[in-house]
Amino acid sequence: MAQNCQVDVEALDKIPSVASTPWVSFSEKEFISSIAKYNNLSTPGPNKLSWRHLKCIFNNKACLKMIINITNMCFDLGH
Predict the structure, then answer these.
(1) Is residue 7 part of a domain?
(2) I need a surface site. Which of 24, 31, 46, 53 has the fewest CB within 10 A?
(3) Which of 66, 63, 61, 71 is nearest to 24 (CA)?
């Protein structure tokens, strides 16, 4: 049982710091090419959306732009 294990949190102090790299925003072309590889016939997940449905939504330029903006803002805010 993990809850009864002793944890040495000072071990975290020994991890060297690494400079973070800024997030490079998605472009429309990059976003479309990254989702193009997913099979349209795949089984939907718990949210009942298939890749075929998502690709249809992303074909609408206004929807695509909003999704990209939301995605980039999430990364900018650290979510």
Answers:
(1) no
(2) 46
(3) 71
Say how far apart CA 55 and CA 51 lie, in whole Å: 6
pLDDT in tens, 9-51: 888 888 888 887 777 887 889 888 988 899 888 888 888 888 8
> Quick one: CA dihedral 52, 55, 57, 59, positive or negative?
negative
Structural tokens at position 71: 């995605």
What are 8's two structure tokens? 């040495």
**What is the residue range of 35's domain?**
25-39+47-79
Helices (H), the chain: 28-36, 51-58, 61-77
Domain total of the chain: 1
Q: Residue type at 5?
A: C
pTM of the model: 0.58
Q: Is residue 4 part of a domain?
A: no
